[in-house]
């Protein structure tokens, strides 16, 4: 097993990912200007329901994106402290704590309680000064009660005056014998229930904008989303090659365009370029890490404070994190189900099969397929301390891949945006033990 | 039967629910149907001839379960996973649950994986309570549950049978509420531990038997003269799926508190609301499900029509409680979310409260004594002084 080289090793990240920064900046710029441009602003978290808002010309603030942005700019602390002062304990979802903390800071300004501005959210930070407070909330959180309650808490924090719309996303459990991934009577019923609620949600938006809901526009937006979804999946498929030209870390930095960026030509263009770069690398035999020795799978949510750090850390081990539950089992990955003439059912399907909303047996089958497809040697399970939604099935997943695929696993602790839960020495020792196990399997001639 | 003997029966069921139920199954031949707390109606299972049993946190240390669930989960979910891994649910014919807290969803998956030969079904109740479709969706879920029970027993479930179970369960809630009312009024002497045993045993025991014991108990308590003990009137709030350790309840009373009321799940929350006894039973159950959240708001639901903190302030006033002790199970996310709302509302009104975080493993009683004593001191002093209200 190779150990971390003394000279810092850098992952060979996709160059096109940097174009994503532009898209993210443009998105926030539009959000900051929303009120001046006479737009209403909707706050929401969880799955990508933003096309619903976009079609009605409503601006949207995605809670996780906001918390992740603060973490990426090292500015999460004031918000987290504000939340702590109000009594939110550290064991609560760090995304929610950060986002609610911003709300607490905004409320402290008194006049802003009505929701006109979001100043002070980052101390004197210019960024926070410009994020508009909500005119409406839409809650559509799959699986995680904490997600649904996060919206409810914001609703309460803003004085219960701002309208809220709740979409209840059924968990895909499977009581019936015909239950299967994307199929069976229970799943079909859940899709229908979701479609009913999405229609009601369009009425809710129309009521608050005072304009008829533009369904044709939604269809058009979804046609871009579908193309972006397809291109992204195709680009990820190219990583079946050895060495894999891109890594899970590249795919996490490419999530924004399929998560909260406006559906339009820009997101299609983005994934066209990403795919082209992956193809170029493929032709040149260039991998995402130098001298790829191990192909790994990442189970769990991302640790946003540590993306670059982790990418380099695994590159140092000559280990390529080829795929992951977070990136490969969500974000319009079931793009084929979207009918651009009538996209609601396809949207519902994608929301229902997002990376946390499948019960363990269905989820495990999908993970095993991915491990086989990408010829995975080992699995890293990120036990995100404050995200039980992602942590819930991890022991079952680990048990299944060890038994059925014979691959070793490493559990590592961390969190989405609370850095204090990450302990690098423990991560190193767990990962090294796993790599050692892969080596011994190889010596014994078990693995490919 | 003397009150002590009745309480001993309650204790046997409350503290050893699985053995109690297994024995009942052996002697009565009924199927055992385990459920999760906190919103699942036992009425339908009872109507189908099963003994519905709300699965309880056990006190033993988590051992085997460590291999299936992380330590940063509430004691209830960890204990359930542990019991499933240790094979303790083997006597159950079915486990059917429908709650929504993300942690129990994790436990549900492990339970199904560990009990391949048991009928493990999930019926997810809508947790958003004030939407135009909340009622119809809840009814749909109960209809699916009914179909699942029918499939399990192989027998159709008649509306009349459900209505008759509803009547029996209403009677049980009513008797338990009488206990509460008499205690609130100071007409009977009944400790917090005893109250927990009365309610918790109702989650396990056959309802007809439980009703009979409750009737006898009420008669006995009413005939005894309550001692005129004095102390600080305390309201207990919190602890959802798991019952607070009885040691904590004893400690509060040892330190000079008199628990006069609570909103605990193993308490008022469980018995707050009755189900309509006429009409379509599925609709009645769906109405019950929504109505009880307005009676005693539950932090695991989202409901724009309910305010837990407002409810608590009102309930304290009704019970003439002087201070509130919040028992929060460590890692309980719904509680962590709502606690700041309560804290602010109570501070605004100048009503004293004390937050105690409880843990599955730790025997934290000694450290706690000083905190409870000084809290009760503060409350006593405040009660003597004119009420300070913060605008
Ligand atoms: S706990 Fe995880 S899934 Fe739930 S709201 Fe937080 S980040 Fe989302
Ligand atoms: S509501 Fe609280 S106690 Fe109940 S399962 Fe969820 S976290 Fe545990």
Automatic annotation (TrEMBL), chain A:
Record carries keyword Iron-sulfur: yes
A single MF term (Gene Ontology): iron-sulfur cluster binding
Pfam families: HGD-D
Domain of life: Bacteria
Iron-sulfur recorded as keyword: yes
UniProt keyword annotations, A-Z: Iron, Iron-sulfur, Metal-binding
Family that this chain belongs to: Belongs to the FldB/FldC dehydratase alpha/beta subunit family.
Name of this chain's protein: Benzoyl-CoA reductase subunit B
Species of the source: Solimonas aquatica
UniProtKB/TrEMBL annotation, chain B:
Assigned keywords, A-Z: Iron, Iron-sulfur, Metal-binding
Pfam families noted in UniProt: HGD-D
Gene Ontology MF, one: iron-sulfur cluster binding
Domain of life: Bacteria
Coiled-coil positions: none
Family: Belongs to the FldB/FldC dehydratase alpha/beta subunit family.
Protein name: 2-hydroxyglutaryl-CoA dehydratase, D-component
Organism name: Solimonas aquatica
């Amino acid at each position: 097993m190779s150990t971390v080289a003394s000279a810092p090793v850098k992952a060979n990240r996709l160059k096109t990912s940097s174009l994503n920064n532009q898209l993210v900046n443009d998105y926030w710029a539009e959000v900051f200007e929303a009120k001046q441009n006479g737009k209403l602003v909707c706050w929401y978290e969880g799955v990508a329901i933003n096309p619903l808002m976009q079609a009605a010309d409503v601006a949207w603030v995605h809670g996780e994106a906001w918390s992740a942005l603060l973490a990426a700019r090292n500015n999460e602390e004031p918000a987290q402290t504000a939340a702590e002062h109000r009594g939110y304990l550290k064991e609560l979802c760090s995304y929610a704590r950060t986002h609610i903390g911003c709300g607490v800071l905004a409320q402290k300004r008194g006049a802003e309680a009505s929701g006109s501005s979001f100043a002070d959210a980052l101390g004197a930070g210019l960024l926070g000064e410009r994020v508009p407070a909500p005119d409406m909330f839409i809650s559509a959180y799959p699986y995680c009660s904490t997600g649904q309650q996060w919206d409810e808490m914001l609703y309460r924090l803003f004085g219960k005056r701002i309208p809220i719309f709740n979409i209840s996303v059924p968990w895909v459990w499977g009581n019936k014998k015909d239950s299967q991934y994307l199929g069976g009577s229970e799943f079909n019923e859940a899709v229908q229930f979701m479609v009913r609620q999405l229609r009601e949600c369009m009425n809710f938006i129309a009521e608050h904008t005072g304009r008829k809901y533009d369904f044709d526009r939604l269809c058009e937006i979804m046609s871009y989303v579908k193309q972006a979804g397809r291109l992204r999946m195709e680009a990820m498929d190219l990583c079946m090659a050895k060495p894999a030209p891109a890594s899970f870390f590249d795919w996490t930095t490419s999530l924004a365009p399929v998560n909260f960026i406006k559906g339009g030509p820009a997101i299609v263009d983005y994934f066209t370029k990403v795919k082209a770069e992956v193809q170029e690398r493929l032709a040149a035999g260039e991998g995402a890490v130098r001298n790829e020795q191990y192909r790994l799978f990442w189970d769990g949510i991302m640790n946003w404070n540590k993306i670059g750090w982790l990418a380099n850390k695994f590159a140092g081990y000559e280990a390529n994190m080829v795929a992951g539950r977070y990136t490969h089992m969500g974000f319009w990955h079931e793009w084929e189900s979207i009918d651009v003439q009538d996209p609601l059912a396809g949207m519902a399907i994608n929301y229902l099969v997002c990376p946390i909303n499948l019960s363990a047996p269905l989820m495990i089958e999908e993970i095993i397929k991915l491990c086989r497809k990408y010829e995975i040697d080992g699995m890293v399970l990120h036990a995100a301390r404050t995200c039980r939604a992602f942590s819930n099935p991890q022991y079952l997943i680990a048990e299944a891949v060890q038994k059925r695929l014979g691959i070793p696993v490493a559990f590592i602790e961390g969190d989405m945006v609370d850095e204090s839960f990450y302990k690098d020495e423990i991560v190193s020792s767990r990962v090294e033990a796993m790599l050692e196990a892969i080596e011994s399997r190889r010596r014994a001639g078990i693995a490919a | 039967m003397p009150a002590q003997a009745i309480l001993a029966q309650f204790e046997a069921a409350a503290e050893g629910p699985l053995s109690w139920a297994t024995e009942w199954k052996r002697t009565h031949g009924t199927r055992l149907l385990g459920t999760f707390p906190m919103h699942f109606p036992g009425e339908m299972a009872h109507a189908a001839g099963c003994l519905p049993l709300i699965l309880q946190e056990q006190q033993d240390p988590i051992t085997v379960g460590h291999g299936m669930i992380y330590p940063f989960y509430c004691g209830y979910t960890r204990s359930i996973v542990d019991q499933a891994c240790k094979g303790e649910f083997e006597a159950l014919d079915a486990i059917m649950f429908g709650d929504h807290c993300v942690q129990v969803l994790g436990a549900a998956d492990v339970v199904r994986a560990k009990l391949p030969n048991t009928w493990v079904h999930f019926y997810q109740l809508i947790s958003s309570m004030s939407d135009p479709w909340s009622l119809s969706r809840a009814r749909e879920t109960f209809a699916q549950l009914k179909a699942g029970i029918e499939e399990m027993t192989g027998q159709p479930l008649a509306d009349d049978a459900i209505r008759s179970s509803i009547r029996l369960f209403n009677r049980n809630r009513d008797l338990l509420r009488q206990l509460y009312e008499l205690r609130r009024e100071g007409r009977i002497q009944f400790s917090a531990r005893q109250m927990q045993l009365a309610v918790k045993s109702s989650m396990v025991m056959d309802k007809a038997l439980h009703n009979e014991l409750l009737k006898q108990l009420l008669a006995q308590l009413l005939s005894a003269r309550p001692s005129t003990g004095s102390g600080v009137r305390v309201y207990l709030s919190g602890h959802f799926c798991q019952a607070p350790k009885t040691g904590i309840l004893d400690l509060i009373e040892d330190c000079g508190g008199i628990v006069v009321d609570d909103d605990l799940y193993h308490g008022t929350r469980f018995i707050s609301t009755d189900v309509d006894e006429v009409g379509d039973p599925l609709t009645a159950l769906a109405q019950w499900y929504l109505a009880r959240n307005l009676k005693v708001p539950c932090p695991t639901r989202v409901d724009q029509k309910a305010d837990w903190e407002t409810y608590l302030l009102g309930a304290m006033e009704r019970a003439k409680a002087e201070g509130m002790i919040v028992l929060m199970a460590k890692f309980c996310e719904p509680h962590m979310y709502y606690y700041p709302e309560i804290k602010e509302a109570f501070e605004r009104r100048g009503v004293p409260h004390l937050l105690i975080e409880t843990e599955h493993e730790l025997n934290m009683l000694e450290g706690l004594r000083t905190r409870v004593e000084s809290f009760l001191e503060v409350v006593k002093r405040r009660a003597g002084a004119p009420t300070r209200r913060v605008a």
